[in-house]
């Protein structure tokens, strides 16, 4: 228990310092690059910096956990605390447990933060502030399919839960059957409500004897049940920064319609599986470190460990981007690498646990 508290305290201390330093560096560098294109409003600039900080945390927190483990381990070696723990009867696995427990706990909290839109969509919001001086810009020319219908929104405003310029095309046996035209629709009671609409119906038999096209004026129509504005905005614009709830709802809703959900699955894998490469890499790197500075060049080891961490993180990041672009399956780009790291870490853990 004494070793657990001591190591956990220093691990959290170094983690906090490293994360704050990396976030401030990224946010400061971004601000210097984009300051000229930002609004003159101090409030918008402050909100922009906050969203950029959230995005930086989302990207750099896993790295900070691994860098903090390396720093803590070097501190324990140089202060001879590591040798003292082993002399008191602690095993390598006992010394490793604080790193695994603390990093896993932080990762679980990190995953849960993706239920908050301002965190999971921080990069999108900050880019909107830079380009449009608003954190949530309207979506234009949205065209998608839903339950054998083709739907077009000239403009959708997710924040106001409203759409303008509505067209709904009904297809039957590969032929256009009906067109619904409306000026606007609002989202309420889990569906899109249209106050007034013109319904244009084409006859089944286009001949001289047919009655021709029929136009009806309808009121109080409800369409797209269950399709929330933010879900539409993210799914059909190809955005990948889903909140947990939006991603799960979209997956459940679209899976019944034979619509490709690879990007949504990839987003869920990125949220729930990708961050857990951290405790795996912590275990792998930990066992490569000797117990005393006499057995290694500390500076060379630190450089090698940081380089290896950046290499693994870069490969994972590249595979995630390939998955987002549907170049490779998300299972191969996100799940498989983390599973491989987990198996290697498990082998290392069992090897040294049995040795003690």
Could you explain how this protein is built, in words?
- InterPro entries: LptG/LptF_permease.
- The protein has a six-stranded antiparallel sheet with strand order 1-2-3-4-5-6.
- It has two domains: 2-121 and 266-355, no CATH class; 133-236, no CATH class.
- It is an alpha+beta fold and 356 residues long.
- The longest helix is centred in the N-terminal third of the chain and has 37 residues, at 42-78.
- It contains twelve helices and six strands.
- The chain is elongated, with a radius of gyration of 27 Å.
- The model has no long low-confidence stretch (mean pLDDT 84).
- A hairpin with a 2-residue loop joins β3 (162-172) and β4.
- It is 58% helix and 18% strand.
- It has helices spanning 2-34, 42-78, 81-87, 92-112, 117-120, 122-132, 229-236, 244-255, 262-272, 277-286, 298-324, 330-355; strands at 139-146, 149-157, 162-172, 175-188, 191-201, 214-223.
- α10 runs parallel beside α12 and α11 (298-324) packs antiparallel against α12 (330-355).
Class by alpha and beta content: alpha+beta
What proportion strand? 15-25%
What would the principal axes of the Cα set say about the shape?
Answer: elongated
N-to-C terminal Cα separation, in Å? 18 Å
Mean pLDDT: 84
Count of helical segments?
12
Number of strands: 6
Low-confidence stretches: none
Helix content: 55-70%
Number of domains: 2
Main location: membrane
Organism: Sulfurimonas gotlandica (strain DSM 19862 / JCM 16533 / GD1)
Transmembrane segments: 12-32, 44-68, 99-120, 271-293, 299-320, 332-349
Protein name: Putative permease, YjgP/YjgQ family
């Amino acid at each position: 228990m004494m070793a657990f508290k001591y190591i956990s305290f220093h691990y959290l201390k170094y983690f906090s310092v490293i994360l704050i330093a990396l976030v401030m560096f990224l946010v400061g560098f971004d601000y210097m690059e984009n300051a000229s294109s930002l609004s003159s409003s101090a409030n918008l600039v402050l909100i922009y910096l906050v969203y950029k900080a959230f995005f930086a945390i989302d990207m750099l927190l896993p790295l900070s956990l691994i860098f903090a483990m390396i720093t803590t381990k070097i501190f324990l070696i140089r202060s001879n605390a590591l040798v003292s723990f082993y002399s008191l009867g602690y095993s390598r696995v006992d010394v490793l447990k604080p790193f695994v427990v603390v990093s896993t706990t932080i990762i679980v909290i990190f995953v849960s933060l993706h239920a908050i839109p301002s965190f999971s969509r921080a990069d999108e919001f900050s880019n909107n502030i830079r380009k449009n001086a608003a954190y949530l810009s309207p979506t234009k020319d949205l065209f998608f399919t839903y339950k054998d219908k083709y739907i077009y929104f000239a403009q959708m405003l997710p924040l106001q839960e409203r759409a303008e310029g509505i067209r709904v095309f009904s297809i039957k046996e590969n032929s256009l059957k009906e067109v619904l035209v409306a000026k606007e629709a609002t989202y309420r009671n889990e569906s899109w409500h249209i106050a007034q609409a013109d319904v244009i119906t084409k006859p089944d038999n286009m001949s001289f004897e047919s009655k021709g096209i029929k136009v009806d004026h309808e009121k109080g129509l409800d369409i797209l049940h269950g399709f929330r504005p933010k879900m539409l905005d993210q799914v059909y614009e190809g955005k990948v920064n889903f909140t947990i709830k939006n991603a799960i709802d979209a997956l459940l809703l679209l899976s019944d319609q034979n619509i490709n959900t690879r990007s949504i699955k990839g987003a869920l894998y990125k949220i729930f599986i990708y961050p857990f490469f951290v405790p795996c890499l912590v275990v792998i790197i930990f066992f490569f470190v000797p117990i005393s500075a006499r057995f290694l060049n500390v500076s060379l080891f630190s450089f090698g460990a940081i380089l290896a961490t950046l290499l693994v993180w870069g490969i994972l990041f590249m595979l995630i981007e390939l998955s987002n672009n549907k170049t490779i399956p998300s299972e191969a780009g996100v799940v498989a690498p983390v599973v491989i790291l987990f198996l290697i870490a498990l082998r290392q853990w069992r090897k040294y646990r049995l040795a003690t």
